């Protein structure tokens, strides 16, 4: 990162970060913005990310600087690839590990064949509701702000595209998976709905974004978030 000149940052650079567990996407953006400003002694520089990753998720976060920030919406439209782990037999209010398990369900009826069969029902164009613990804005606040106050806000379903939902490994209650999807897909919602369809409940135990279009987390600059 330090080999990039100020003029290059201002004209526009695409930086690939491997977001750590517990960091928000804005934490990553703020860290990179601070490093650029501190390195070059400037007060302002445009920096933004192309697609939010939840705090409990890791993996590829595309960060844009300068004039390239104008292309963020175009980058967000590219297909994304995720890998992760589902825990069946329980649900959480946030659909992931941000909140504690709130309900427990039986898993004795689950078989690999049944899990594979149900997963196929989530392929193609599907409707899903965004999680109540999400950054989506409603009535002037983000949904997670309402949810943390115990207030449930009505949200409308959105049509998303799941190109691939592959079950990689089953070790009940855990299921490893890979998803390839279009813009606007909430993997937490996909996992929650999948658990409901299995009549066992389910939530995200781990999630990692591997790719956005041709950009891969394997190409991430590991020095971006250094002190």
What does this 3D model show about the protein?
- By secondary structure, the chain is of the alpha+beta class.
- The chain is 23% helix and 33% strand.
- The strands form 3 sheets. Strands 1, 2, 3, 4, 7, 10, 11, 12 and 13 form a 9-stranded mixed beta sheet that branches. The chain has a two-stranded antiparallel sheet with strand order 5-6.
- The longest helix is centred in the N-terminal third of the chain and has 16 residues, at 25-40.
- The chain is elongated, with a radius of gyration of 19 Å.
- The two termini are 12 Å apart.
Instruction: Determine Rg (CA atoms, Å).
Output: 19 Å
| Shape verdict | elongated
Q: CA-to-CA gap between the ends?
A: 12 Å
- Unreliable stretches (pLDDT < 50, length at least 5) are none
Mean pLDDT: 92
Would you list the SSEs in sequence order as H and E? HEHEEHEEEHEEEHEEHEE
Give me the number of helical elements. 6
Estimated structural class:
alpha+beta
Features:
6 helices; 227 residues; alpha+beta; elongated; two-stranded antiparallel ribbon; nine-stranded mixed sheet
What is shown here, in short?
With 227 residues, the chain is an alpha+beta fold. The chain has helices spanning 6-11, 25-40, 72-76, 112-119, 143-148, 187-197, and strands at 14-19, 47-49, 58-65, 80-88, 90-91, 103-104, 124-128, 137-138, 141-142, 158-171, 174-181, 202-212, 215-216.
What's the helix and strand layout?
Blueprint: H1 6-11, E1 14-19, H2 25-40, E2 47-49, E3 58-65, H3 72-76, E4 80-88, E5 90-91, E6 103-104, H4 112-119, E7 124-128, E8 137-138, E9 141-142, H5 143-148, E10 158-171, E11 174-181, H6 187-197, E12 202-212, E13 215-216
């Amino acid at each position: 990162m330090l080999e990039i000149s100020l003029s290059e940052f201002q004209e526009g650079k695409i930086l690939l970060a491997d977001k750590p567990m517990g960091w928000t996407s804005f934490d990553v953006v703020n860290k990179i913005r601070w490093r650029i400003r501190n390195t070059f002694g400037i007060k302002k520089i445009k920096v933004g990310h192309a697609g939010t990753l939840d705090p409990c998720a890791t993996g590829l976060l595309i960060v844009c600087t300068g004039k390239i920030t104008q292309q963020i919406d175009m980058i967000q439209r590219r297909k994304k690839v995720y890998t992760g782990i589902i825990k069946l037999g329980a649900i959480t209010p946030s659909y992931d590990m941000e909140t504690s398990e709130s309900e427990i369900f039986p898993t004795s009826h689950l078989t690999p064949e049944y899990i594979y069969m149900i997963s196929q029902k989530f392929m193609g164009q599907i409707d899903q509701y965004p999680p109540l613990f999400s950054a989506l804005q409603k009535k002037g606040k983000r949904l997670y702000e309402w949810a943390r106050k115990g207030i449930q806000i009505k949200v409308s379903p959105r049509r998303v595209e799941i190109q691939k939902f592959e079950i990689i490994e089953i070790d009940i209650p855990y299921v490893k998976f890979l998803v390839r999807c279009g813009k606007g897909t909430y993997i937490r919602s996909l996992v929650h709905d999948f658990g409901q369809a299995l009549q066992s409940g389910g939530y995200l135990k781990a999630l990692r974004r591997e790719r956005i279009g041709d950009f891969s987390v394997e190409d991430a600059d590991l020095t971006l978030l250094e002190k």
